[in-house]
Amino acid sequence: MRARTTTTYDRSATTTIPILELWGNLVVPLQGEIRDSQMDELRDRLLARLRDRGARGLVIDASGVWLLDSHLCSMVGRIARAARLMGAETLLCGLGPDVVTTLLDMGIELEGIRTALGLEEALEQLGVHAESPDEEDDVWDELLDGRDDEDEGEGERDARDA
Fold it and tell me: Could you tell me if 61 and 139 lie in one domain?
């Protein structure tokens, strides 16, 4: 009888970190446990994308990361500085207390790299402004109010013409 073997598959070893394009900016969402090889590969793809697309800004969203080791902290700082050298304003957002403490303890300098609490704030700092549902309703209300005024004016003319 053959012994049954179990094969484990480490998805993080082969997962590519996405680079999203939003309104002329690049967004890199960091999620879960990130390997050094993933960050090295990200750096190469990201710098090539910045060169090819000429993005105005780069947001590195670390809200999905609960731990950054020394190499990852260093890589985030290097990627941010390299992007800035290529003309992209760089923002780092979503930093949790543990990640901030690690960055400080390691003496990683993020000079010239702005930070934001979350992705929405980071995009706003880059000039991308999302409309809230309330603002959208206000626009519709204004349009409909304008139509009501026009309709009333036509009704008055119709009454005079009769």
Answer: no
Low-confidence ranges of the chain (pLDDT < 70): 1-14, 131-162
Burial class (CB within 10 angstroms; exposed 0-12, middle 13-18, buried 19+) of 25: buried
Structure tokens that stand for 109 in this block: 């300098």
Residue 50: count of CB within 10 angstroms of its CB: 19
Rounded CA-CA distance 15/133 in Å is 35
Q: Helix or strand or coil: residue 38?
A: helix
- The whole domain housing 21 covers 11-125
Q: Is the pTM of this model over 0.85?
A: no
Alpha carbon separation from 97 to 24, 116, 154 (Å, rounded): 30, 13, 62
Q: 50 and 116, same structural domain? A: yes
Both 114 and 138 in a single domain?
Answer: no
Question: What CATH number does residue 96 fall under?
Answer: 3.30.750.24
pLDDT at 143: 60
pLDDT (0 to 100) of residue 8: 43
